[in-house]
């Protein structure tokens, strides 16, 4: 008997866009986030109202701006400055794209691939917060 090779879908094909409204009674945003480059993690959802976004999803973009590699404070600042409802692109973590930012950056991908381009975006965002220092 031969085994049928099942090709896994790339994480990019599982990405989804959702709109997050304000919670009407308190004026707060209906989503909470954790992670961030300062914790060595991708930004991810820690509380969500539903409607497509799930707790644990990795946040790729907020309002069309790629946020991977930004600190948690920068991501929260972007969330607070976007017009409402906020358009957020997320993806469920998997074997290639998990919450560990350092692990993803340590992997080798084919130059020009989606993953290689994403690594470049992450590095550029990380370098925004790097402070040169001489010894």
UniProtKB/TrEMBL annotation:
SMART domains on file: PDZ (SM00228)
PANTHER family referenced in this protein's UniProt entry, alphabetically: MAGI FAMILY MEMBER, X-LINKED A-RELATED, MEMBRANE ASSOCIATED GUANYLATE KINASE-RELATED
Protein name: PDZ domain-containing protein
Species: Danionella cerebrum
Domain PDZ: 24-94
GO cellular component labels: cell-cell junction; cytoplasm
Signal peptide start-end: none
GO BP: signal transduction
């Amino acid at each position: 008997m031969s085994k049928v090779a099942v090709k896994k879908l790339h994480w990019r094909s599982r990405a989804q866009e959702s709109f997050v409204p304000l919670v009407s009674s308190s004026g707060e945003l209906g989503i909470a986030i954790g992670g961030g480059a300062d914790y060595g993690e991708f930004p991810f959802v820690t509380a969500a109202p539903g409607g497509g976004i799930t707790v644990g999803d990795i946040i790729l973009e907020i309002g069309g701006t790629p946020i991977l590699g930004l600190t948690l404070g920068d991501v929260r600042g972007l969330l607070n400055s976007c017009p409402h409802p906020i358009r957020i692109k997320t993806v469920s973590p998997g074997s290639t794209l998990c919450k560990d930012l350092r692990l993803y950056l340590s992997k080798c991908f084919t130059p020009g691939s989606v993953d290689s381009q994403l690594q470049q975006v992450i590095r550029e965002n990380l370098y925004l917060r790097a402070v040169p220092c001489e010894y």
